[in-house]
Write a structure and sequence with these properties.
311 residues; 36% helix; binds zinc ion
């Protein structure tokens, strides 16, 4: 049973809203690409679990916790009846080397990258202590799962908690064999506790420096993210990929993008009209805002916030 879904990380949302509107630096492009790859890898792993895991389990996707003033993030956590399994999912591609002597990790033989085992063991230690503080003594195990079929790791010794792409299927079979029991109330209690401790409102790191004025305006394609959109009747059409989307949906999505990029700014009719590149008339923009958002100040400088519950 899924206790928490995975959603696109806020940082990735920000970069994908920004990319068609702003010239990212080489380093920012790299950050964006890493975030994208990381998220794709996590989704890939989610699909494998959904397809192959047949035993009784609880799953929490993308958990951000804090213990002792230290933040730690868990890509995937599975609660089996007798053990909790943590997964650090890595979508690395190409040849990598593990240097046991130095306990270091290299990409393309010589470029040093952070050893993912360190990240994993930190999360395992902190989670253990956090659960203990809440009265749960649990059996906890973690693995770094390399999801990309084109990943190769040299010098790997079997004592490392690394799962290679070729080992994932057999790992799933092993879980199915080893966990024949049923999820208990204690298991559910742990899951509930962890969800309640999840930090959903975290600050985004590595934000590029941009202003409203310097961003390209217009509606982006919901499929390919380009700004090559034409409007005809109730629909937006993408000249790049041919996808279409209802104007209403596209405007609502544009408002959400605006909110991600400018969390402090107020959503007004004029701002959104400009943000959408003047493609949707002010009257129509206002109609859509009224329908999907709540007017917070009824005076002249009224602005909108997303309607809750009813939407
Ligand atoms: Zn498109």
């Amino acid at each position: 049973m899924e206790l928490k879904k995975r959603t696109m990380p806020k940082e990735l949302q920000l970069f994908s809203s920004l990319a068609p509107r702003f010239e990212l630096s080489t380093k920012e492009k790299q950050t964006y690409s890493n975030l994208q790859k990381g998220y794709e890898g996590e989704l890939m792993f989610d699909r494998i679990i959904a397809d192959q895991l047949q035993c009784d389990y609880l799953i929490i996707k993308d958990l951000l916790l804090n213990f002792d003033s230290k933040d730690f993030q868990i890509d995937t956590l599975i609660i089996f009846p007798t053990i909790i399994q943590l997964f650090e999912v890595k979508n690395f591609e190409g040849e990598h080397v593990y240097d046991k002597e130095k306990d270091m990790f290299y990409k393309n033989m010589n470029y040093e990258i952070q050893n993912p085992e360190h990240q994993l063991s930190r999360a395992v230690t902190l989670l253990k202590r956090l659960l203990k503080q809440h009265g749960f003594q649990v059996n906890l195990q973690g693995t770094v799962t390399f999801i990309n079929p084109e990943f190769t790791l040299y010098n790997l010794t079997p004592d490392k908690p690394f799962i290679l792409p070729t080992q994932i299927n057999s790992l799933m079979r092993k879980f199915n064999q080893n966990h024949s029991g049923k999820i208990t109330n204690q298991n559910k209690g742990i899951g509930k506790k962890l969800i309640s401790l999840h930090q959903s409102d975290y600050p985004i790191k590595n934000i590029p420096d941009y202003t409203f004025e310097e961003l390209n305006k217009g509606i982006t394609c919901h499929h390919c993210n380009s700004l090559s959109i034409s409007l005809k009747g109730h629909y937006c059409y993408c000249r790049e990929c041919g996808e279409k989307e209802k104007v209403q949906q596209a405007v609502v999505r544009s408002v959400q993008e605006f909110k991600i990029l400018f969390p402090e700014e107020k959503v007004t009719k004029a701002k959104i009209f400009e943000w959408c590149g003047g493609m949707v008339s002010e009257q129509r923009t206002l109609r859509i805002l009224k329908q999907h958002f709540q007017l917070l100040n009824r005076k002249r400088w009224g602005y909108y916030e997303r309607k809750t519950a009813s939407n």
